[in-house]
TrEMBL record:
The chain holds residues 244 to 607 of 607 of the full protein. Its EC number is 2.6.1.16. Homodimer. Catalyzes the first step in hexosamine metabolism, converting fructose-6P into glucosamine-6P using glutamine as a nitrogen source. Keywords: Aminotransferase, Cytoplasm, Glutamine amidotransferase, Repeat, Transferase. One of its GO terms (molecular function) is glutamine-fructose-6-phosphate transaminase (isomerizing) activity. Residues 40-179, 212-354 form the SIS domain. It comes from Iodidimonas nitroreducens. The active site is at 359 (for fru-6p isomerization activity). This is Glutamine--fructose-6-phosphate aminotransferase [isomerizing].
Length: 364
């Protein structure tokens, strides 16, 4: 049932504050201001490495988690696409955790990688949205997301719920490994707790986001730029647009465009710059200026202060609430999803069932 919404995708975008709140709720104790992982079957202190493996949007969630796990838990992290990981000869160390991320829990490549890692003696865990799935049955440990059934082929709420679990795990492992003290833990729990409200505020920008869809719908190519944990979000933005609007789009690490992609810039290529105010803001803005200097048409996603500092207006920006860097990929996922959605609606594509795609990819 789509409720009052025209598509399942839009309904699922709007469910995010609720389902992310539910997912975080299974890890956070807001009163004690602590993060706890129920039933953990390994000691985070003893982990030599975490290998994150997934496909598609779930792979981008894994890429974002790499920044968090390195920063907060100081664990060496490897991230790979399941179909690549499985068919090379990855060197796995003793005491390694292999973590498989999947909405469906049935993706053939991810499942094959899980079976391989298990046979190699790794500890296996999975973040899945379907509790009765094959991956949930076969892994040593399951971290469920509580997104509820996701019908739209383009993943939205499953992605942000995966991020919610990964953020909670990163903090919990950081505490267990002695890198986060009680005060810092309390502060981070408050950040996580506020994410659902910040996501609700982000949803209020829907009309502003929609006002940019006409420009995008006329484009042949679109670029998305971001830095740090918002770089994988740029990749996710490009994937979302490709999947449902059939417009060619690419995501790049903002610092990388001068190494080639800047040659693509002209007034017909919209460039979406994801630049929350934070430690990487100035660097991202200097990359944005390189694009503007070459005639690029930029849409800046930032907070009020970030947008004002660049003298930009509603016509060439999308305003988000001010957020802590840990929260930004979850909050900025919303305008990224809405931009793809409204562009696809203008193009008249089948948003919930895009051509050539299936919800669950069960062939390798
Ligand atoms: O069920 P999974 O999370 O394992 O699926 C992985 C990908 O097939 C999936 O994320 C795909 O890329 C989506 N269509 C993205 O919107």
């Amino acid at each position: 049932d789509k409720g009052n919404h025209r598509h399942f995708m839009l309904k699922e975008i709007y469910e995010q504050p609720t389902v992310v709140g539910q997912t975080l709720g299974s890890y956070l104790d807001p009163l004690a201001e602590t993060v706890t992982v129920p039933g953990l079957c390994f000691d985070p202190k003893a982990l030599s490495r975490i290998t994150l493996i997934a496909c598609g949007t779930s792979y981008y969630a894994a890429m974002i988690a790499q920044y968090w796990l390195e920063h907060y838990a100081k664990i060496p992290v490897t991230v790979d696409i399941a179909s690549e990981f499985r068919y090379r000869q990855p060197v796995m160390t003793r005491g390694g955790l292999s973590l498989f991320i999947s909405q469906s829990g049935e993706t053939a490549d991810t499942l094959a990688a899980l079976r391989h890692c298990k046979a190699e003696g790794q500890i296996t865990a999975t973040i899945v949205n379907v509790a009765q799935s094959t991956m949930a049955r076969e892994a040593d440990m399951v971290f469920p997301t509580h997104a509820g059934p996701e019908i739209g082929v383009a993943s939205t709420k499953a992605f942000t719920c995966q991020l919610a679990v990964l953020a909670a795990l990163s903090i919990a492992f950081g505490v267990a490994r002695g890198h986060i003290d009680q005060t810092e833990q309390a502060a981070l729990v408050r950040v996580l707790n506020e994410i659902p409200s910040r996501m609700s505020e982000a949803l209020q920008a829907e009309q502003q986001v929609a006002s940019h869809a006409a420009d995008l719908s006329r484009a042949r190519d679109v670029l998305y730029l971001g830095r740090g944990a918002d770089y994988p979000l740029a990749l996710e933005g490009a994937l979302k647009l490709k999947e449902i609007s059939y417009i060619h789009a690419e995501g790049y690490a903002a610092g990388e465009i001068k190494h080639g992609p800047i040659a693509l810039i002209d007034p017909n290529v919209p460039v979406i710059v994801i630049a929350p105010k934070g430690p990487l803001f100035e660097k991202t803005i200097s990359n944005m200026e390189e694009v503007i200097a070459r005639g690029g048409k930029v849409i800046l996603m930032s907070c009020k202060e970030g947008i004002a500092s660049q003298g930009r207006t509603a016509g060439n920006s999308i305003e988000m609430p001010a957020v802590h860097p840990l929260a930004s990929p979850l909050v900025y996922a919303i305008p990224v999803q809405l931009l793809a959605y409204h562009t696809a609606v203008l193009k008249g594509t089948d948003v919930d069932q895009p051509r050539n795609l299936a919800k669950s990819v069960t062939v390798e």
